[in-house]
Automatic annotation (TrEMBL):
Residues that span the membrane, as ranges: none
A molecular-function term among this protein's GO annotations: acyltransferase activity
Keywords (A to Z) from UniProt: Acyltransferase, Repeat, Transferase
One matching Pfam family: Hexapep
Superkingdom, taxonomy of origin: Bacteria
Keyword Acyltransferase assigned: yes
Protein name (database record): O-acetyltransferase, putative
Length: 192
């Protein structure tokens, strides 16, 4: 207990203890859900063992699938991560996600095909939702303030640099940075 007081202070230790208690009662099998924690469509969200969140995490399952948002074992979402799914977002095991990350599988309107693009004269809220699943494989590290857009698959062991906007698939064992994100390094198992 002294360790907690030293690390978090008196009030911080009380907040942590209450978050642990609430986690064990309402958010099994999670490790720690820090409050406030916002979840919409709880029945469509599934998480594995040892799931951990920072404060202000927001999870929105907006469609009709039974497992729209699937989060693996030992996943950590830090402060103010927002995940929104109309179709599906899947996060593998041992994934670390820094603060202020936005992951979405949908957009208000379609902007990638000239024949079916949404009109700018429509109100954005009235535009048809277009979606494509997002898959984040095992052992991925996503840096601070990253945005991951619809239809993206991030390969196992990839690292997404802070502030990146991921609009295309990311190969496994690569580091990507930028807006839009691009490969800057690929790990070679032969030379290490």
């Amino acid at each position: 207990m002294k360790h907690l007081f030293k690390r978090y202070g008196f009030l911080g230790s009380i907040r942590l203890a209450s978050a642990l208690l609430i986690t064990k009662i309402f958010y099994k099998p999670a490790r720690l859900i820090r409050l406030p924690f916002y979840i919409r469509g709880r029945s469509a969200v599934k998480w594995g063992k040892h799931f951990t969140t920072g404060v202000g995490v927001r999870i929105d399952a907006l469609g009709t699938k039974s497992h729209q948002i699937v989060i693996g074992n030992r996943v950590q979402l830090n402060d103010y991560v927002h995940i929104g799914a109309v179709d599906q977002v899947v996060i593998g095991n041992d994934v670390l996600i820094a603060s202020k990350v936005f992951i979405t599988d949908h957009n208000h309107g379609c902007y990638s095909n000239e024949n079916t693009e949404s009109s700018p004269s429509e109100n954005p809220i009235d535009r048809e939702l277009y979606s494509a699943p997002v898959i984040i494989e095992d052992k991925v590290w996503i840096g601070e303030s990253v945005s991951i857009m619809p239809g993206v698959t991030i390969g196992q062991g990839a690292i997404i640099g802070a502030g990146s906007v991921v609009t295309k698939d990311v190969d496994k064992n690569t580091i990507v940075v930028g807006a839009p994100a691009r490969i800057v390094k690929k790990y070679c198992f032969k030379t290490k």
